[in-house]
## 1
Amino acid sequence: YREDSELHKSIRKNMQKYIEIAKTGKSTSNKKDVIPELLHEIIIGKYIHIALEAMYQDGILKQLIPTIKDIVDMKDPKKRFKDLWEHTKLVVRQTVPKKELRWAALFHDFGKPKSFYIKNGKISFHKHEHESVKYFKEFAKNFNIFSKEEYNKICFLIYNLGYVEGYESSWPDSAVRRIHKHMGEYFKDILLLSRADITTSYKSKKQKILFKIKELEKRALEIKAKDDIKNPLPKGIGNAIKDLGFKGKDIGAIKDMLEANIKENELQPFMDIDFYIKYIKQKLSFVETTGNINT
């Protein structure tokens, strides 16, 4: 994307006309059908970071997205937070060249100028994703270049990016399961966007964040795989074993024994509770004083 490139010439030639058409709803040519593809071509381009800067300097980007000026102006002389415009360009560049992911990357921090505040000496951009989605929606409304599916996906990606950033190894499996279920079909794309959002120059910090993302993905997929395996024991078997007088770990030990016997084809799977309780009574001897069992 150079000033003398064909893509640059095409943008300069057609963009102003498209902007006027989009805002007035009046068209005297077929350019309205051409420009959306042109914008998508730019956003997935190899040199998108250069294209964004050139479009900003040309004034084209400010006409497309007036609030881009707030992003460019968001700087801190004390270096307490990143140069937002440089960060945004780098994130878009690092993002996999898929249309929805690149647009989400461009808008993912647009809400930071509005959500910025300092409390007790600490800088916060709390819930900036909520504001970022609003800016994308406004852009999408002004320039009808997205299908319904694309629009919904981009909104989802922007809004939910913070979930991955907040992940910690200490999260219980139930929390990992919830976030994976919530992300649904967009889980992998959220992870791709999260990786692209790492722009720190500190190698150790970058590796730490990448490890957390990889760990979240691994745990989520392992939990999903485990959940997808149909339990050979009936629902409520734990309570039924408890009613026999067993507690805590002993209940788990008996269930493990049943599952092991099923796996070894010594016991039939997918039977009712009464079948397994009868089997337990026949197979095990009870020691009432300890609650322990012996096979």
## 2
Amino acid sequence: IPSIQTLGHMEQYLRWDESADIRDTARELLADCDATYQFISTAIKSVTSCFRTKKIVLGLDEAHNLGLGKHLQLYGYEPKDAIFCRHLKKVFEITKALGLEGMIYSDMFFRMAAPDAGYYTEATIIPPEVAAKIPENATLIYWHYGEEPGCDEYMVPRHLELNRRIIFFGGTWTWSGHLPHTEYALRATKEALPACCKYGIKDVVQSIWHDDDGCHCNHFYSLLTLQYTAEYAFGHEDDAWLSRRFRHCTGGDMDAFLAMSDYQCKFKFGEVEKGGAFPGQNPVLAGYPYGPGR
């Protein structure tokens, strides 16, 4: 399934002068601009021409500075949710005209409604008028990579309340350096998958991002997290089984893949005692021996 961005996470392109007409901020495309939608339409046509599927991931996540750059200069201040919903409607008009099924990340709906602008804030209530503007044929992607332990138990039901098809995206933590945080990824996965099963989420994806600023991690280093996810789907969770299956399917050594987390801890965040927090780390991650710094 092709996956692109149609609002935020565009800094690798927006740094070039040719993007000036469609640049709101250094990260966000300029909403409410005809040239922007021509650009998005061209991008969608280009990437979907390589695939038989009619599904496409359209991004639309983490557009934190939407409307605060060129859009502010051109049109004045406007609440983020109004700009976002108009932009979302325009993007889905493009996909509808092309006969495509759009999939979008859900975090902006929660962030715009949260008192602290957070994604996983338990007290967040999305206003009905905003929820009603989510296209009925949209698939919402709930993504959680372990940043907020325990939140899957309330975030999955909150997504289901939106009355749209839901997909869960976990993460293999390949995007923060030369080697992945494999043990942290596994701990997060072991919390998320039971919640998905409990609430009937049938589709689960494990993300292998390279992130916006580039990353040097080999995609194949994510194999252990992928193997665990597959084994869980077939009813197997214990480490001994996982180790045997991992060696049988990939030829890899489970302990060696787990040891990659030690590399991240020692060289990226400094020597720390297992079970402690890393410098700058979100306190909720302190209980994760290999949790990434925040």
## 3
Amino acid sequence: EELSTLRGHEGLVSSVTFSPDGTRLASSSGDTTIRLPDTATGEESSTFRGHEGFVTSVPFSPVGTHLFSASNHTTIRIWDTITGEELIILRGHETYISSIAFSPDGTHLASAGYDTTIRLWDTATGETLNTLRGHEHSLWSVTFSPDGTRLTSGTQNNAMRLWDTITGEELGALRGNEAYVFSLAFSSDNTLLASGGGDRTIRLWDMISGEEVNTLRGHDAFVSSVAFSPDGTRLASSSGDTTIRLWDAATGEALSTLRGHEGWVSSVTFSPDGTQLASAGGDNTIRLWDAATGE
């Protein structure tokens, strides 16, 4: 049983994330809105409107003063989290933007889309800094390494690539996934990368050797989202099978299975202190869980 269930969205909740201080959540939805509920009370503090289509991804800036959102309508929008004011609209992608991620220092944003490109943006000005090309199929996921020096990206044809964030040079490819790569996450110490995708597995990669070191199996449908705990000891995964699973990141052992969503689970994330999990899904809800007990 979860700690609480937050309702308000009128469509699929595609993404959920904690603010850096853990006091608020941000959620994006197919209903074109972004909502910011209080994590303690569940009360909604703000609703941001402006996107003309499905909102796919909604990370907070590392200091929490701004929120960035991406949509299937080709735009990324920057919001002031205090006033709710829309500050800048970033344009450049030619179609659906599937994933966006901040650099650890908050100065750069990476975006990935169905146009097969990754774009790097200056978060202060909204200027496009670089466009990374090399993938041949639609991109589903992108994330920065914790030290900010590398990006990794995943596509609908199983491909994963590593990129140098300064030069834009492709550093290499990671091979092993057998279907779409929906989600990517680095451990906080930069040693492991987790990927989740359409082959129902979570794969763990050694970021020094580039070798796959473990394959976690247990989900009965595609893995939509993966997230490491802040201390890197645990991994959370969400799936089309309506469950969230917790794993020991070192051994790959399954620790617990969280049930409660009434549809596929699209997103899962740890709170900054690692004590809670937030999940979002196709039942239009956000759910909060105790990360230690799974209740």
## 4
Amino acid sequence: RKKSYEISVELDNKHYISGNLIGIGYAYIRKSDYDSAIINFEKALAIYEELDDKAGIGVALQSMGNAYSFKGDHEKSIDFHKKSLANYEERGDNDKLIGCLMNLGWEYNKNGDYENAIAKFERALPLVEELGNKQTMGVIQSNFGKAYTTKGDYDKALESYDISITIAEELGDKNTVGYVLKDIGHLYLQKKDMDKALDYYERANAILEEVGNKHGIGYSLDRIGNVYLAKGDYDNALEHFGKAKEIHEERGNRSGVMWSLLGMGDVHFNQGDKDKALDYFERSFDIRKEIETE
């Protein structure tokens, strides 16, 4: 991307320059360097505005929203997604409008604003149905499930998750089935039904292992550890947090390692070993500081 960017600069082709800046921004997102991503997206946005390239402006605004989402600044993410939404509406770009509505809904849900989240997913669904895109229909139903879980409307959440799983099974998408089962496990964890939570997390983990999804396996093992922690089964909790930590380390997922260490600290704290708990908490906190200061 950088080589392509250098060539576009030499040619003084502003459309290519801005397009390459967007690509470089997403490369930084993949490296978890969100500030650098934002800088590149801002540069691209300025060029698109100078060119009065409405389509490019929409893409740059949505990219900014995505970067702030990854950074954890959900208010700024919502602000940029709203601006990109207005851009896509004005131009009648329904394909990009669908993605933007889904992003906005997801951001609202993260903020606990489930009513706005549900409203955005409801608006996106008929547009997706019109296009006949079953995979995206399944994603929207899964997002409905998350929003209804946040709202505490567990019956509606389960209905949405069931539709999502049915679609994923029709498409042969085992990966999505695994993730939705994990979400159902979270629903039962929120309901304090630990046996059902454990059942769904273990079913999710089995499928994610079958498809070789290490990222999903690591986090499902963490969730299983949390259930055992809540049940007071500290040996099993520690075992699962430990396995999750190994997978996160293998993948270079420091955020995952941070959460596994935190879970292990919670186990030792509940066992009354305050010194060992403090050691794990400090190691977890050190990783968090490293991630935040990069």
